[in-house]
Amino acid sequence: MNEELIISGRMNPYIDPHLEVWEWQIPLYLFLGGLAAGLLFFAAYFVMTGKEKKYPTTVKYGPIVAFIAISVGLIALLLDLKHPLYFWQLYTTIRIDSPMSWGAWVLLIITFVALIWIFSYLKEAFPKYNCKIGFISKLMGIFIEETGDSWEWKYPWLKTFEKYAQNNRYAWAWVMAVLSVILGVYTGILLSAFNARPLWNTAILGPLFLTSGFSTGAAMLMIMSKSHEERLSYSRIDLFLIVIELFFITHLFMGFLASSQVKVEAAHYFMGGEFTVTFWVNVIILGLVLPAILEAMELLKYKIPVIIPGLLILWGGVMFRFIMVEAGQIIRYLY
Amino acid sequence: MRYGMAIDTKKCVGCSDCVVACQTENNIPHGYARDWISETVSGTYPELTLEIRSERCNHCDNTPCVRTCPTGASHVIEGGIVKVTHEECIGCGACVESCPYDARYFHPDGYVDKCTFCDHRVKNGQDPACVSVCPTYCMYFGDLDDPNSEVSKKIATRKTKVLAPEAGTKPQIFYLI
Ligand code: SF4
Ligand code: SF4
After folding, report:
1. CB within 10 Å: which end of chain A, N or C, has fewer?
2. Structurally, what CATH architecture does the domain formed by A25-330 represent?
3. CA nearest A199: which of A289, A313, A298, A324?
């Protein structure tokens, strides 16, 4: 038995009684990053494989949602900083050793790539110029003009750029696919790089967060899509990803149980300890098993409203990140 | 040149003088601390042992806190002292998460702060504030590379341990047990 006590009354905020440096901002950022990675990957993948006709929502609207997700994620990251006005110092160096650093760069680059993508599909996504939101329509009014029942760019350089983006979609799809995988893995590596936190310090977190991010992306597309065929194939993709995720999670805990004492204790937090109920109910049952059953039923031709498994998967994804970040900060080395 | 410390757990009485000395010397805001005292009780009653330690940043040889810093604010200076440049710190918390000893904290002004081994005193040949005030003389500070320094001799002649060696940070504060 080993009991430890800090008796000098150290009560540093965010540090004592246990670490709470990362509150809601980082898990939200990780979730949105993973979601965006999934959305962008599927868009890129279906263009690369020449199936963009079959997946119109994915290719045209997915990246727009991804862009919004990344923007909100970056705001969350900014809110996490205790010195937010200095955030630009993130972009004065690149430090490969620091996931926080290269991740911020990947996020910046993928935002630009997504913007180019959105740009090249803008006319197809919004064939008519009838935006109801005042400020957006004013903003767009600077760049575009209505022509009959469609619209055209006002400036020739925008037209040239659009041509260029449209002619090189295939190349951009490759760039975006690679970047989105890096982004998805990064959301896990950000945590797994911390040697000091036994729960996070495992290499499986990268692939696990990647899979989870892709499955939230697929869930989002399933909800957004209006084509039955597109929805059905996302049901299938999600089912597949959920199985992989369950496999990784099993691996995660088996790995802990076979490892050093602190890691065994880390696993016990989820098997009888403090996080047992939250984790099993929200992540495993509601977020993975139940949607998997619903999707399997849908594939067997039962009528299931897609919104239910879709929202469940998103919920599971959010909870997974919140629980991992919170638990990771509580579980520490005792010496 | 490699600065380090040896702290005698057999002599430490847990008076917290080192904590107060640091707070005064380094102008630590009220309610915060760069060093602290912890007590470990181990064994089963009635076979209990008590260990009292004065703890702070271990100025590790292998510094996860410096590696994960995205801006380079956390860095290592001459003699292996780990420091934070306040003006470069964005307060992302990555280094705080990296430290297995929870030795870093957020200063209310938004940057990360931690023990500096009182490098401003060490430069002038003085001991860090905590070492200089200890009433039981249980702390030794000096150059670990020099086998004739008092700290090296203590480490060579006494049984020692470091905290959480399994975290792999190679701490440079040695507890004499
Ligand atoms: S004790 Fe913590 S803050 Fe100090 S050098 Fe080691 S890891 Fe870094
Ligand atoms: S909080 Fe400051 S010192 Fe720590 S990793 Fe972030 S930028 Fe570096």
Report:
1. N
2. Up-down Bundle (1.20)
3. A324
